Amino acid sequence: MRAMKKGLMSIVGVALLGTQLVACGNTNTANSANEPSNNTDKSEPAATETAAKPVEITWWNFPSFQALDGEVGKYEKEIIAAFNEKNPEIKVNLEMITFEGGPEKLNVAIASNTAPDVIYDAPGRIIDWGKKDLLAPLNDMVTDEVKNDISEAFWKQSSVGEEIFMYPINTAPFMMAVNKTVFEKIGALDLLPLDKEDRTWTFEEYKKALEAVKEKAPDVIPTGFFAKSQAGDQGTRAYLANLGVSRFLNEDNSAVAINTDNAAKALDWIVQATKDKLSVSGAASLAAADVNDLFLQGKLAFTLNYSAVLKAQNVSKKMVEFEDVLLPFPTLDGSEPKLEPYLGGMAVFNNGDEAKIAASKKLIDFIANDPVWGKKNLIQTGGLSVRNSITGLYDDAEYKYAEYARKFTTDAPTIADGYADIRTFWFPELQRALTGGATGKEALDSFAAKANEAITKAKAAMK
Hints:
alpha+beta, D-Maltodextrin-Binding Protein, domain 2, 2 domains, 7-stranded mixed β-sheet, 3-stranded antiparallel β-sheet, 12 strands, globular, disordered N terminus
């Protein structure tokens, strides 16, 4: 099976995809006719030093970096230009993809043997590709210094067994966000837990804040929810898990744990909150991006799928002026929340061409570790470093809180066997509850049955 799958990756085409928010064809073809440089820097991983002959690779990128001058992909082109100053023998073709359409384009590309050489993404997809033998292991480019400077939890999200398939770069805990300006205008700032260092709060305190918005700012929707597509699923599952003081999966990720009585009651409350106009209407047909758009338009007081990374990327997307502030999810009893980490990193598709694989690793190493561009790139993502030794990058209260909130980080379910299938069952069950087709408990129990079967099948397939 491994040989057959690697054979499928032997023909790697260059698919011309559109950039996010702009017309198709915005592709960078940065190149240089100069002779390859003779780089003898011993600090560079040995595995990346094999790409000395002219080689061409394709980099597909979600908008992982903040747009420069409002142009999606412009910053990535600057990365490539700087990379080519040190590696003129490697031509990098950049293709920007969107979070909305990108996943399906990737599926089509993989199925048609036109996958990119390198990609910046997250564990949810990368680890699934790794389990399917579609990626090249990156162990040979991870030095002992890097290995020891990144927490074991992040390496678990980046690996399948002992093989590292994602080079982790940036992180931030996923949280909620609140339009602080709305609460200032209605004189209800005291209802937010901003005077507490940890900003933790209870379900009852959260509901009081929602009711204040409904009463004093009738043109603003108190809070949001969504269930249209898989994107942003971490927001809804963390919201429910914390409201119900539950976990999404159990400790060893071998079974679903979200179908508790408390989590079911929380889902029932969300359904009722929609009827009571405390939560956005039509959530069953809204995607995560739709809800965040309402937040950026100033029409929503709370949004569920946020982080320091998204806060930075959304600066240019705000339709009105307001201050967005990070908050942890409220818990039923005010206990410490469990926050899933956003984790961004890069992976290399195994297309059977060792020169392309080596060149792709060189690009990753430059993006993550170049003495100048490594830090610059990290800041441009708007995220925190995965490395324990790199802190205090931002002189901003919200970033300082995001760094503090890393203490609440829990393991992400993305490393579970069968996760790619597990997530497909989540939103349909939420939709059933939202549209009155099931109670909260019925929906969560149905999800658990389907997800547990997917986990069992995935484990069996790996034996």
